[in-house]
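Question:
When you can, review this sequence-structure pair and walk me through the tokens.
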Amino acid sequence: MSDAVSLATNILTMQAASTQQALSIEMLRQNAQAEQGLLAMLQQNVEQTQATLPAGQGMLVDRTA
């Protein structure tokens, strides 16, 4: 009887670990998608900002100031 309880406990523990790992993977995937969306938004903002500047402006930074 003790072996059956031990086996059942091990199976439940493995299932819980598997579920936790699946949730962690899903959270990482969603985080990566969110970061890709943020990167795309920032890239679009940079492109729009560059389109509004006159040619050559914003290309050099005066580090002595």
Summary: Residues 58 and 65 are 15 Å apart (CA to CA). The helical segments are 2-52. The longest helix spans residues 2-52. The mean pLDDT is 89.
